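hey so i finaly got around to running the thing on MFS transporter from Streptomyces cinereospinus. pasting the sequence first so u can double check i didnt mess up the copy paste, my clipboard has been acting weird all day
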Amino acid sequence: MRSGHRLGQPPGGRPGRRFGWLWGAYGTSALGTWLAFGAFPLIAVRVLHAGPAEVALLASVGAAVGAAVAVPLGPWVEFRRKRPVLIGTDLVRCAALLTVPAAYALGVLTFLQLLLVSVVLAAADITFRAASGAYLKTLLPPEDLLVANARLESTSWATTIAGPPLGGAAIGLLGPVATVVADAVSHLLSALGIGAMGGGEPRPGPRPARLRAGDLADGWRYILSDATLRPLLLNTALFNGLVMATQPLLAVLMLGELGFAPWQYGLAFAAPSVGGLLGSWLARPLVTRFGQHRVLVAAGAARAIWPVGLAFLGPGTGGLLLVIGVELGLVLCCGVFNPVHATCRLQRTATHRVARTLSAWQVTAKACTALLTALWGVLGGLLGPRTAIALAGVLLLATPLLLPRRAATRPAGPEAEPAPDRV
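ok and heres what it spat out for the 3d tokens, dont ask me to read them lol
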């Protein structure tokens, strides 16, 4: 019997009350995160008078070290009930964030503290995502996973639209530390929402007597031995890493050489988020009509064609409209791809391996993004921002070659092992 039905959740596209609590907690936390978007760099610059190198260090090293710290947490989460882990990671993020306004009020805030908090947040975020994916698979039957992931995706884009403008207004009125407090409160509310869900949770597998070094690689071994998960990981890690690596260069190009105002830069990336909402709403109807694999491949290929257009960016209204158009097309395709990809990944992963697999996935993605961001920073200095952006766009055109070539033969059951390549 499927795990979602064991918990008594209604099938057929109506995930039920308990998912509603989880969805609400996710939305609250996501809104808080976007309210505080850019707060740490702003505090580093305005309060601690940090330079560009320190701000770059805060962005890249915090994520990379946090990913390394999260490596042993995947196997640890696998053999524990997931709801207490979700509540715990929310409380850890809340506590870590609150140290910043506390230190600021006492006049003892340092750059090292910001760096350490960013590491804690990165590790907690990876752990939360791994535990939430594992919990979602036990909470819902397989046929409801796409509906749930589409709702989470649409919420993510909605908070992306609303959060930064509201956060910017709050920063203007109250200062950047105020948005950090708002982010901390959002994680506390998320923990309370998850705690209010009630209900049971399947007992995890028996815990090993001790965690061996080889256990840390279980998630990667599982992914790399599966004919569907392996190309999906390579595709998403490379695609997301290249897209994120160009963002600092695009900021330099638009705000420096081309002379766009900060509000124009913000508009160019906030307005296209509407495409993400539309894409997430379209995901389920498209899968119903064309099938999961076709939509996955089509949306994954379509999202890769847009970023190269940024190499032709010019000044003025025309340039602004070009960025909005490119980002709108990119975000629309990502809005379709992301929930379909997340659903496929959960279906392909055995229930007793979800936390380890998702943890390995998130660690790989964050490490790849940090590495490519640093590399493209060097390339931008050597070749210029526009040339480096164009190079990333050309490489992105090849990423569809890494998408799965065949539809998955069957979803993974509770005891399923990876499906090998067919010869």
